[in-house]
Amino acid sequence: DVQLQASGGGLVQAGGSLRLSCVASGFDFDDIAIGWFRQFPGKGREGVGCVGSEDITATWYSDSVKGRFTVARDNAKDTVYLQMNNLRPEDTAVYYCATLFSLWVPLDWGQGTQVTVSS
């Protein structure tokens, strides 16, 4: 079974930083691109950042987080990270990692981790 375990969320003040981790198991991690998504209360999930598989330096970001968030993967640890800097109250959401069928198209979801940014 594909399993994705996200962690690292919490409460932080505006301007602060958090690093989320997503530990994967149950599939060949090296071969699969991974994405981070977030969900605001009462809304659907939106893409935040993605990292490629064959080229692990290939990353993509939504305009709302570009320059503040960084996605990276460590294939030796089957883990993907989302480094979030200069956080804003509007970044408050539940964050999810997912395997990708294609860019920004999720396939399997992990459980979410809550990020709350206070003003």
Structural topology:
Layout: E1 3-7, E2 10-13, E3 18-25, E4 34-39, E5 45-51, E6 59-61, E7 69-74, E8 79-84, E9 93-102, E10 105-109, E11 113-118
Parallel strand pairs: 2-11
Antiparallel strand pairs: 1-3, 3-8, 4-5, 4-9, 5-6, 7-8, 9-10, 9-11
Keywords:
globular, seven-stranded mixed beta sheet, 119 residues, mainly beta, 0% helix
How would you characterize the overall build of this protein?
Strands 2, 4, 5, 6, 9, 10 and 11 form a seven-stranded mixed beta sheet that branches. The chain is globular and about 40 Å long. It has strands spanning 3-7, 10-13, 18-25, 34-39, 45-51, 59-61, 69-74, 79-84, 93-102, 105-109, 113-118. With 119 residues, the chain is an all-beta fold. The model has no long low-confidence stretch (mean pLDDT 96). The chain is 0% helix and 55% strand.
Q: Spans with pLDDT under 50 lasting ≥5 residues?
A: none
State the distance separating the first and last CA atoms.
40 Å
Please identify the structural class as seen in this structure.
Answer: mainly beta
Number of strands: 11
Could you give the order of the helices and strands? EEEEEEEEEEE
The proportion of strand residues reads: over 45%
The coarse overall form would be globular
Cα Rg:
13 Å
Mean pLDDT comes to 96
Count of runs of 4 or more consecutive helical residues: 0
Helicity, in percent? under 10%
- Mind summarizing the main beta sheet? 7 strands, mixed
